[in-house]
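Researcher: Quick sanity check before group meeting.
Model: Go ahead. Protein one:
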Amino acid sequence: MSASPSKPSRARSAAPRDAYHHGALREALLEAAEGLLAERGLEGFSLREVARRSGVSPAAPAHHFGDAHGLLTAVAIQAFDGLREALEAGNARGGDDPIARLREQGLGYVGFALRHPGRFGLMFRCEDNHDAQLRQSGRAAYGVLEDGMRALYRLPPQAPLSATQLQGLLAVWSVVHGFAHLQLAHQLDDALQGAPRESVLRDTLAPLLEQQLRGLAADLPQG
């Protein structure tokens, strides 16, 4: 005799809830949180909706992260770690040329933002978060850019930046950060005439950064 069709159906519906291992559930909750942030922003975020999207009970996110603040902190840490990796990958693409390394860092920065709008929208809204791991991850990401500017200015590792050199760093950061936000808000669509993302980065942002960085390097003493 064949099995009743209702029994497999109940088993399938329970599977997503029961199949998670501890680490898999944590990652699923982080992914759901990022998707919700990308769609609704911080104002529309809730643990209940994250749980619903993950197919688990409303208590599951609290079990892993404590509360909404804990889950958002985990997403922000993930974001800064991912940004650091994107900047380091830019360094690798740029090779030994300080200008090329910073240019590729900039492309990596914007590329990360476009791939992960939920994370990117959150990570710079955590100024009142004093979590030690979050602060460490944020400093590590910023440190990659800072080291890139030290190389451009021919400074040894850990050397302090002068006021003028810090202004150069902030100018480069402001360009890529602003470019990312403008693209995410579709404010550049008309100007760029719907060009594909990769060509926008290579054909528009890369030359812009190259020009800016060469201008900064031109002020260095020669020899």
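Researcher: Fine. The other one?
Model: Protein two, sequence then structure:
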Amino acid sequence: MSQSGHPSDLLDDRSLWKTAAYIDGAWVGETPHGTYQLTNPANGAVIAELPRCKEAETDAAIEAAERAFRSWRRTSAQHRADILRRWFDLTIQHKEDLARLITLEEGKPIREARGEIDYAASFMRWFSEEATRVRGDVIPAKLPSQRIVTLRQPIGVCAAITPWNFPAAMITRKATPALAAGCTMVVKPAGETPLTALALAELAERAGVPKGVFSVVTGNDSRAIGGRLTGHDLVRKVTFTGSTGVGRVLLEQSAATIKKCSMELGGNAPAIIFDDADLDVAIEGVMMAKFRNTGQSCIGANRIYVQDGVYDEFARRFTERVRAMKVADGMDEKSDIGPLIGPGAVAKVEEHIADAVSKGARVLCGGERSELGGQFFMPTVLADVPQGAFVACEETFGPVAPLFRFTDQAEVIEMANDTEFGLGSYLFTQNASRIWAVAEQIEAGLVGINTGFISNETAPFGGIKQSGLGREGSHLGIDEFLEAKYLCWAGVEDY
């Protein structure tokens, strides 16, 4: 890896360094709206300037997607599967470069970034296989002279609005089932992390994805771009990962044209550790669930409930583990905690800690900015946190682990469900009866049982309550991009 001054020199394949929007198979380096700067969250350095797209560029991408859809939908499932498989192979081949791009623009520790590329690529492989499994049905008719057949057809042009915290995986989890189904897609990546999306577009082109089938619209004018994606008549489906507040706006905007929507929104995941839990397993699981991506994960353990009998021991041992974590630039191979995404994220972490302490919580470790300065914050453990603290009802999205004490099962279920959100949750116990009872009563779309690692391509990912609509991944993921068409044949007579 080259060590010269330009950030692109971090890449072995410098052709993956793209600083132009990708629309209708062409790289668009300039728009009438100028450019915006992309900065490295680890040091604030400007790493690139990208074109600002607005309504006109978004419309161009949508119209190209509609043109491409007319032919893409008619390709064979096997043809689409082969292209997605080549995209997977190229992604794995360029895994290191893609991981470096993630770390450079998002700050994620490089070891985790490599894991994200594996995760992102897994959807390419999975949905390349699911493409050939889409099928309809034959249904017994009421009349002997009729036959009923159902077809499953691609919904049409799709729009994806993706977040910065998993800039590769949140694109592939949406784009690959769409393309597998025969849909086309326009992606609006987060303004903080366009480089990863554009590198994926370059690899998609190499894999043989036709022009217009997959476009990436860059820019930090989210309202302008999002307003067209939700308002344009040609867009039939909107898929979004981000905050619940933004999701509400997108749903409202999409209602005018009755678009199909899937939303993966905010979380406030509880992690429950019962007295009979294996503490080694529980500590390892909570470490993973809480501090992945410096705590910036929608399914991160935001509230850690520990039963009386093991509370003190868990707090002591868990704090020792957290105190040993290394805070460093994500490019450091030994980094456990990278920078937060921006100054606002740091301010929110500080606000949540101050509020908890003012209400009686104790800081067991961390609680302050790192000596590295900037957007680095020390991993923090808070003990004796009251249920009324901000960290109990708001998603912190940072490296803060609040410990809540509970006494019995009924109490902790009530505490865990005391939130408008229902995305991820975690449960640690060795009692099989309790596992069934608690897992069924927790109001969440995902339940990790004796593990902090619950995301994979084979499982349906999604929330309930105000954490979203629909499911991504698994065999259900492709259904979000298909419509069922019913054919009723009459006049069938015996001969």
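Researcher: One line on it for the slide.
Model: The longest strand covers residues 147-154.
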